[in-house]
Amino acid sequence: MKPSILFIGAGRMAEAIISGLHNKGQKQINQIFVGNRSNSDKLKELEDKYGIIPVNQLQDCIDQVDIIVLAMPPSEHEVVLENIHPFISNQFVVTIAAGMGPESLEKRLPYGTAVGWIMPNTAAEVGRSISLYTYGQFIKNEHKQQMEILVNVIGDSQHCTEEEIHKLTAITGSAPAFLYQFAEILISMTEDLGVERKIAQKLVTEMVIGSAEMLKTGKLPMELRDQVTTPGGATAAGLEVLKKGNFDQLLKEAVIATNKKAKG
Prior knowledge:
Enzyme class: oxidoreductase
EC number: 1.5.1.2
Domain Pyrroline-5-carboxylate reductase dimerisation: 162-263
Largest sheet: 8 strands, mixed
Number of domains: 2
Function: Catalyzes the reduction of 1-pyrroline-5-carboxylate (PCA) to L-proline.
Domain Pyrroline-5-carboxylate reductase catalytic N-terminal: 5-99
């Protein structure tokens, strides 16, 4: 039987998964319900674009769904889980919030509830996320199949332990922001050289995309770096500045800070 899904929350990541289900997973699912008390206009928009069923009261549809996706910030989980607790029977409850692993969900739901955790990233919006996922202790094969539906419609995925996801959140989830910061600096410097912003953004964007494609050839980053770097040349001079500025250490500290904050 094809599962029905309830999304609690209708933000960017929820819409990315809904869009993926609409475009790639329609034959694998039944109905999609979405509840988002703070923004009824957003529910109307999703209804028009993807044919979802808007929900005002979560308890009105919980018994009709097989999967519940918690798509709200971590700070809202406790209240929402408390509200839906009385209505949970055999649904598969999945969170996509940073720091909210299966152990946390199981403590707040009826004993025996099947739970899961997906840590996607912003590229889910274009179907190119690398999503980490894991399960709680009461998982059955049907839940694994349902998880595959959710992660496959937004890109690639990797099964991990809960602890691994806590450690890798900064790498796969937050690091795109580090990359965008890097790109923004290069765009700004390109403008300083007299290039209009539209062209500057195109140049930097295509450089980043092309570099990423080179990584997909399977060559190690250091090999690719060395291909670009002539000893004593211009690129080497730039890399030396990064080295003297502790670029490597700054990135490591950014990862540590991100994971520390995500875990609470």
